[in-house]
Give the backbone structure.
Amino acid sequence: MAPSIGEAAQHLLESWSRDDWHAAAKSVTVRRVKPALIFGLAFWAMRKVAELAQFYYKKRKPPPRKPQPEKKQGWGSIVALLGVLATIAAGVQAWCYHRYGPLFFWSAESKQLDLTPNAWRALLETRSVGFIGGHHRAGTTQLWRSVARHADVASFGEQRDCGLDFSEGIFAQDVYPRFGVGEVQDFLGGSSSQKNTGLGRYALGAVEDVYWTEGHFTVSGHAQARVLNRFGFLWDRHSGLDTAKVLLEKSPPNAVLARYLQALVDWPDNVRPPEKTCAADAEFCDVAPPPAPLSSRARFIFVTRHPIANAVSHLAYMKDGTIPELVAHWVAVEAYMRSNAPRLAHVRKIKFEDFCAAPAESLLELWTFLGVESDLAAAAAATADVRRDPNKIHRETYCAPLRAGNPSAVAAHAVLADRFAGVIEDAHGYAVRDWCVV
């Protein structure tokens, strides 16, 4: 009988010595074994990778589910959606009511009087219209509040009383441009050209678009009545027209539009022929402006403030503003104010810093200028909430990086000073280069 495989292997193991096994091993060279080992290991590794990939794929992709019949959307979901929309709408309305009061929901045509130009001229025979203007963020609101606290001065009241941003009459009318778009107009999307006519930019626009004067074609009895009827509704609602001696309105662009507003209030007493078109490269217009009228029903108070502090204050309301751009706008507004002043019958210019340093004395002078009488005690009570150093926070914000030696801040201030220090320090008396020097 032939031996089995096991018996043959046992016989081979017993018959071969150690030397025989050593000689057989030497006959298998490393050159033959190495490729086989490498191929085998590579095959094993690739197979393991494939198994792992298949495992994770099955783990991430759930098994298919059986299709389920679609459920029809009931009325409950629709009612819930309508409830959410109604809640959002009610929330917006409540916010507007809380911030702007009930007048916010009235139509523009329902918020006006119905007086004719002749009726307004008769009414203004014993009254004057006071316009407060200047730079945005320059203290016009603080000064307006103080002036309006006189019993003989009629104003629009606070924002919630009149439904206007910052109680500015420029947003109540539709005759002249609404430079410096406020929060209500921005919220409602009412500004289609905010970049060119908005806060911190409008005075850098084309002169013929910005600088409206007594020669503008819209100066007429119709425009006078339309503006004063809008203003008159708010004056009468808050303070009363019968007892007021001064009708006060505050909008910063009044400083640029002053000649136009004076002509509008005085129409037809100071009617001017239309001016020639301004040249593109002219500073203002290519014709000699008319002299100031001997008298006027309009009185103007211009407010200015340190240009850097004013620029820093703007940044809280502008997402893309820069200090150099805002200072350039400040210079442009100042140029318009300086051009307007000689052509106005009654005008006072005051630095906000001077007003805050001596508020009672300054307010008493402004009341006298407007034609109302009072005393120092009443003026002190009306200015009790005025901060003595209005630029403190803005100076610290701007100067802290300079004092810390921040290279970017130091370089930016040097460029700003080289560009604007000459005209600002010489013409307006504000320090620019050394503003941060204690």
Summary: The chain has two domains: 110-387, 391-438. Residues 312 and 397 are 8 Å apart (CA to CA). Residues 30-60 form the longest helix (31 residues). Residues 391-438 form one domain.
